[in-house]
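pasting for the record
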Amino acid sequence: MHVAIAGNIGSGKTTLAELLSKHYGWKAQYESTEDNPYICDFYADMQRWAFHLQVYFLGRRFRQIAEIKKSTLNVVQDRTIFEDAHIFATNLHDMQLMSDSEYATYMSLFELMNSLIAPPDLLIYLRATVPTLVRQIQRRGRDYEASIRLNYLQNLNERYETFAKAYSHPMLIVDVDELNFSDSPHDLSEVISRVDTTIKGLF
């Protein structure tokens, strides 16, 4: 089984992936930022590094999916390749931080990769307002995220909502403003109960 977690920057994807991995015994596939050669440069100069960063993420995500496909284990994945294309790259293009030619090249790569993969069995979408995202971004204290603009987070949120409405495969929406699963065992139990119910409906 392949479960993936989608959500904006600071929504709690990595935290929930870790918690679900421990609870169910699933293998966790994380989005690594520590060895990313572009992410610090991107937040310092988005226009200069947007294309490089997005292509890097696209390649990493496709490699993850290939590993998941080969594995016999149940996997929970932190972020999806669909978000890379439909939310982050598209948002950067609309903000004129990625040129038309760069965006066309990127989408051509994505469409080729997308033709070779299947969606996760379940997508968990972590919905959070900008104040919640900012609070959680500040809490984890990554230096390169200190310069993230509020309008950038808001634009991404709007794209996530559009993406969620159009998504045609199994999805569970978790409202992070209401369920603080990282700090509250009660809230985590509620999320797990919803995951249990959804999974039982799939198989």
